């Protein structure tokens, strides 16, 4: 099997979890290799996601590391079966890697909690709103680049329409509702679309009003993607240089607490819808 040129974030995560499992067992790379009867370089390559790993190898490593969490091991095994890249692979080389990793994260999440402070969530953006937002990029993208990014953003929304859509909670600051990207009429159509999306069974929209004052995530937008087991959750933070992905146990614990505190300052679902409707009516 040839080495991977650029492993995806999910492939890197699987390697990271194998390393964490080994370190949790108190074994060095050499000790793990000796017990498995392979070269230590092979262990290193697996942990760095340079090569794929089989279901049998994951179970063998879990047995050597005496991992007691069968649900966790089964979740790792399921990741080894993902041999074929997702739809986002057609954009590789045209879209920044962070954008591809975000699409992959959303696709495999069992649930999503999104906090947005300035822009409406990408998964809920209309095409014309997304074009207006992407059109503000500095430096400006060429028309072909803009079309590719717009196409990628629209394709991400497909997870909401599949047969088993993940439960999604969108926490949106009031500022997102009032910034008129593309002008008032375009924004009104976007807010109408947001209201329609909020009626979906798997979608919850909650608004943080200006009156709420400060709150834990002020200054940063985030996506909390739940995995099949809590150890495989991931936090994605927006940054000027691109998305940041966090998955250390302490980071996950902290961001769960942040989300819980942030939800306390949001308006209930009905009041959130009423605010969105009221702002749309005055555009």
Percent in helix: 40-55%
Distance between the termini: 58 Å
Q: What is the assembly state of the chains in this entry? A: single chain
Widest beta sheet: strand line-up: 3-2-1-4-5-6
CATH architecture of the largest domain: 2-Layer Sandwich
Low-confidence stretches: none
Category by helix and strand content: alpha/beta
Q: How many discrete domains? A: 2
Question: Which properties best describe this structure?
Answer:
283 residues; alpha/beta; 12 helices; 6-stranded mixed beta sheet; 434 Repressor (Amino-terminal Domain); Cro/C1-type_HTH; elongated; 2 domains; Endonuclease, Chain A; Lambda_DNA-bd_dom_sf
Describe the structure.
By secondary structure, this protein is α/β, with parallel strands linked by helices. It folds into two domains: 9-80, lambda repressor-like DNA-binding domains (434 Repressor (Amino-terminal Domain)), CATH 1.10.260; 91-281, Endonuclease, Chain A, CATH 3.30.870. The chain has helices at residues 9-24, 29-36, 40-47, 55-64, 70-80, 97-108, 127-134, 143-156, 174-178, 184-197, 249-264, 269-281, and strands spanning 111-116, 168-173, 203-208, 222-226, 234-237, 244-246. Helix 10 packs antiparallel against helix 12. The termini are far apart. The mean pLDDT is 94. It holds the Pfam family DUF5753. Residues 18-73 form the HTH cro/C1-type domain. GO terms for molecular function: DNA binding.
């Amino acid at each position: 099997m040839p080495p991977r040129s650029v492993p995806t974030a999910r492939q890197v995560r699987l390697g990271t979890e194998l390393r964490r499992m080994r370190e949790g067992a108190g074994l060095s790379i050499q000790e793990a290799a000796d017990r498995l009867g392979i070269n230590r370089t092979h262990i290193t390559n697996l942990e760095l996601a340079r090569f794929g790993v089989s279901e049998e190898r994951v179970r063998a490593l879990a047995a050597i590391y005496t991992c007691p969490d069968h649900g966790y091991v089964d979740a790792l095994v399921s990741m080894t079966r993902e041999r074929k890249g997702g739809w986002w692979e057609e954009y590789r080389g045209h879209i920044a890697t962070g954008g591809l990793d975000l699409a992959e994260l959303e696709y495999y999440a069992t649930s999503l909690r999104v906090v947005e402070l300035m822009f409406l969530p990408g998964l809920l953006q209309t095409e014309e709103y997304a074009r207006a937002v992407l059109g503000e990029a500095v430096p400006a993208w060429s028309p072909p680049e803009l079309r590719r990014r717009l196409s990628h953003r629209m394709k991400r929304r497909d997870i909401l329409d599949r047969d088993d859509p993940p439960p999604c909670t969108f926490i949106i600051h009031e500022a997102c509702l009032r910034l008129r990207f593309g002008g008032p009429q375009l924004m009104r159509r976007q807010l109408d679309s947001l209201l329609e999306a909020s009626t979906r069974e798997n979608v919850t929209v909650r608004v943080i009003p200006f009156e709420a004052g400060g709150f834990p995530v002020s200054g940063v937008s985030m996506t909390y993607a739940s995995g099949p087991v809590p150890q495989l959750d991931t936090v994605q933070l927006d940054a000027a240089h691109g998305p940041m992905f966090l998955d250390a146990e302490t980071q996950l614990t902290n961001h769960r607490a942040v989300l819980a505190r942030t939800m306390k300052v949001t308006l209930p679902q009905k009041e959130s819808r009423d605010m969105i409707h009221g702002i749309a009516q005055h555009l």
